[in-house]
Design goal:
Blueprint lengths: L4 H11 L1 E4 L5 H21 L1 H6 L3 E3 L9 H11 L2 H10 L4 E10 L20 H10 L2 E7 L3 E6 L10 H8 L14 E5 L4 E5 L4 E3 L6 E9 L16 H4 L6 H14 L1
Antiparallel strand pairs: 1-7, 2-3, 3-9, 4-7, 4-9, 5-6, 5-8
Helix pairs in contact: 1-5, 2-4
């Protein structure tokens, strides 16, 4: 049972994240792990050079390239399950929409370092980053499939700009690099069955190690202009939608896409 939704909302608003321990049972994680590992093995074989040299994540897990409709349906049902939706509704109560899925794993190269970032830094210049963190809302729901070192985050940075230390490390200026430690960093180890919810635009980094394999579900506020980021192939077909108990996340995305096309 999810904690009081108001508590979750308050925790997210204040800190930019929360963790619910042992949220999913072994049967749920086992089924999800089986499907995700099937995707992962096929993706690795198809992207061998990239995987060996630098990859630490993949995306579009719900797409049709690697998984048949039965496995995709399992993923869509998990993403729209009561447990996920209760958490999403607590943080984004008005028209939350599905954006994408990502899979995070350890890089093959042991010299490759984890790194501090805000997701928005890959799409916006500094001035626009300052605006985005205050105006838009993108959620990561991280579901670890094995026990892992988890994440390190800077609480509260979803609502404020970097201080000097954070900026220097994240931007790699003034002698700093992006994997330097930052004072105020909070490490959150995760176990299979936990759920970590955090703002995509807070300062954070994934921590490499153990058997790291985490499925991230990305959700956005419909009021934000993010529908262009959604790959059509990652959305459920009508026949899949008919078999989903609560398809709101996908229906909201499809509605936004139809508005863009009309």
């Amino acid at each position: 049972m999810v904690e009081n939704s108001q508590q979750l909302s308050n925790s997210y608003n204040e800190h930019g994240y929360f963790v619910i321990r042992n949220y999913f049972d072994e049967a749920q994680i086992s089924l999800l792990r089986k499907v995700v590992l099937k995707f992962h093995e096929l993706w690795k074989a198809d992207n061998e050079e990239f995987y060996q040299e630098e990859a630490f994540n993949s995306s579009l897990i719900t797409g049709s390239e690697y998984l048949p409709i039965t496995d995709r349906t399992i993923l869509f049902n998990f993403i729209s399950s009561k447990k996920i939706m209760e958490v999403v509704d607590a943080v984004i109560p008005n028209n939350p929409a599905f954006m994408n899925t990502q899979l995070f794993f350890n890089p093959v190269n042991p010299q490759q370092k984890d790194f501090w970032h805000r997701d928005c830094q890959y799409d916006y210049d500094i001035e626009d980053q300052m605006k985005v963190i205050l105006e838009t809302q993108v959620l990561h729901l991280r579901v670890p499939l094995f026990d892992e070192p988890g994440m390190e985050i800077i609480p509260g940075t979803h609502k404020r700009w970097d201080n000097e230390e954070e900026y220097n490390v994240r931007q790699e200026v003034n002698g700093k690099v992006s994997n330097d430690s930052i004072s105020g960093g909070k490490q959150i180890a995760l176990a299979a069955g936990d759920l970590l919810v955090f703002s995509a635009d807070m300062i954070h980094r994934g921590l490499y190690g153990l058997d790291r394999l985490a499925l991230d579900i990305l959700i956005f506020d419909s009021a934000a202009d993010y529908v262009d980021y959604v790959d059509d192939d990652c959305l459920p077909t009508q026949s899949i939608l008919n078999n989903i108990a609560d398809p709101r996340l996908f229906m909201n995305t499809l509605h936004l896409k139809s508005m863009v096309c009309s």
